[in-house]
Write a structure and sequence with these properties.
Largest sheet of chain A: 9 strands, mixed
Order of helices and strands of chain A: EEEHEEHEHEHEHEEEEEH
Keywords (chain A): Hydrolase
CATH architecture of chain B: 3-Layer(aba) Sandwich
CATH class of chain B: Alpha Beta
Shape of chain A: globular
Number of helices of chain A: 6
Protein name (chain A): Gamma-glutamyl-gamma-aminobutyrate hydrolase family protein
Organism (chain A): Paractinoplanes globisporus
CATH superfamily of chain A: Class I glutamine amidotransferase (GATase) domain
Pfam families (chain A): Peptidase_C26
CATH superfamily of chain B: Class I glutamine amidotransferase (GATase) domain
Oligomer: heterodimer
Largest sheet of chain B: 9 strands, mixed
Helix content of chain A: 10-25%
Distance between the termini of chain B: 21 Å
Structural class of chain B: alpha/beta
GO molecular function (chain A): hydrolase activity
Strand content of chain B: 25-35%
Strand content of chain A: 25-35%
């Protein structure tokens, strides 16, 4: 039996065929394919703030990308450009915190990395361009920022990525304080692009989008850890 | 204490939201809410996968609504109105077989009931209006046929056979919402136990020897009447409670 990997999902009014704007649980198919191609069996986890009990059936967890977190989760006031989606936050925090507690293998992507950070006691910058003076991490709507990362020698991400430092970013928030996690990768402007917890089996957050290229290094490492 | 884990078969398809147009694994939240409201925990099963091993992690499964099943599966030619989804067909027929073999509690909704019938060796009508001469079973998309001001399309009665499991659950009569143009013709190894009284279209099938295998042609997840979901969750909870003993043995 393949490891079962849960993927958190969006809830959005979606349209297809004859249907218009039906509130739907959905996740870009790239995530599902990335898990499958890495040897895992993906199931999608619609938001649910009741309990994290679904984790007992899972071998690993992907915290997927999506909208900004509600800043109250890290004790901040909402800034003008923050676009949160509170319906997802509560259930995903339950999952992230419990997954850390029980040392479930965990990959956080973009929003997922930010969620992981906040679940580990960290904080976020709400709009990076205000601090950086550039928009390289999200150049335009629907356009990934092609960037290069510098990975900490000896880190998990350095071992997984090797000499390949090209990443595809699409975010306007970023990690300000990693909490109990360790920052192991940054772009040249200093923005954290990778966080890890070396004390746990597999806890990795990346600010870029490895699912888009179905990156077997990262998803493969998650699935291996989940076996 | 954990809740029973209920798999929901889902779409993998191109969807639009906001300014995005992406290939997504997705399912309307009505199904998710129906499972959560009746005490289960829903996970979505996308139809891309060559295996059925996910069944081992579930306590119950819902085969959700969707497009038409390819008539090749019951040896018929394709009707011009039949619109198939080959990826879901492959995956769901395989999953349905595995679920029934494992005696996993199964609920089939609309297309899901049709998948059940086909896996049971049955056949479908491909386009009901050809047979009954009207569109009573197909509401306009996006409408609620049970709303007070709705047209009659998509709303009809169902009579339930006395002595069936469905009768114990739903009573002898109910009014339902319908969004389908195909229907079960022969239910194969399942029993047909509910019909639309106006045209005798099969609306409920069940399997008398399985722990819980029920198919309904309407969309209970879009109504406040979630009895069939509650019954599935109950059967799944019963199974989940028994499972640890089996593993220990």
């Amino acid at each position: 039996m393949r490891p079962i990997i849960g993927i958190t999902s969006y809830v959005l009014p979606a349209s297809w065929g004859v249907w218009h704007d039906l509130p739907s649980a959905l996740v870009p198919y790239d995530y599902v394919a990335a898990v499958r191609e890495a040897g895992g069996r993906a199931v999608l986890l619609p938001p649910d703030d009741e309990d994290a009990d679904v984790l007992t059936a899972l071998d690993g967890l992907v915290l997927a990308g999506g909208p900004d977190l509600e800043p109250r989760w890290y004790g901040a006031e909402r800034e003008p450009l923050t676009e949160s989606h509170p319906e997802r936050d509560e259930g995903e925090f339950l999952l992230a915190r419990r997954a850390l507690e029980i040392d479930l293998p965990l990959l956080g992507v973009c929003r997922g990395m930010q969620l992981l950070t906040v679940a580990a006691g960290g904080r976020l910058h709400q709009h990076l361009p205000d601090r950086l003076g550039h928009e390289k991490h999200r150049p335009a709507p629907g356009v990934y920022g092609e960037q290069e990362a510098r990975f900490e020698p000896g880190s998990r991400i350095a071992a997984l990525m090797g000499d390949d430092v090209a990443i595809q970013c699409y975010h306007h928030q970023g990690v300000a304080d990693p909490g109990s996690l360790t920052i192991t990768g940054r772009t040249e402007d200093g923005v954290p692009e990778t966080i890890e917890d070396p004390a746990r089996r597999f806890v990795l957050g990346v600010q870029w989008h490895p699912e888009v290229v179905r990156d077997r290094r990262l998803f493969g490492a998650l699935v291996e850890a989940a076996r | 204490m954990r809740r029973p884990l209920i798999g929901l078969t889902a779409y993998a398809q191109q969807v639009q939201y906001g300014s995005n147009d992406v290939m997504a694994g997705m399912l309307p939240m009505t199904y998710v809410r129906a499972v959560h409201a009746t005490g289960g925990r829903a996970v979505l099963i996308t139809p891309d996968d060559p295996g059925t091993d996910v069944i081992e992690s579930l306590d119950g499964i819902v085969f959700a609504g969707g497009g038409d099943i390819d008539p090749a599966y019951w040896g018929a030619e394709r009707h011009p109105e039949t619109d198939v989804d080959p990826a879901r067909d492959d995956a769901e027929l395989m999953l349905m077989r595995a679920a029934l073999d494992a005696d996993l509690p199964v609920l089939g909704v609309c297309r899901g009931m049709q998948v059940m019938a086909v896996v049971g060796g049955g056949t479908l009508h491909q386009h009901l209006p050809d047979i009954i001469g009207n569109e009573r079973h197909r509401a306009a998309s996006g409408t609620d046929p049970l709303a007070a001001d709705a047209s009659a399309y998509g709303r009809h009665d169902v009579v339930v056979q006395a002595g069936s499991r469905a009768h114990a659950l739903l009573g002898s009569h109910l009014t339902v919402n319908s969004f389908h143009h195909q229907a079960v013709d022969k239910p194969g190894s399942f029993d047909a136990v509910g019909w639309c009284p106006d045209d005798r279209v099969i609306e409920i099938i069940e399997h008398p020897e399985r722990a819980f295998a029920l198919g309904v042609q309407w969309h209970p997840e879009r109504t406040p009447d979630l009895r069939v979901f509650a019954a599935l969750t109950e059967a799944a909870a019963l199974r989940a409670g028994v499972q640890p003993i089996a593993i220990a043995a």
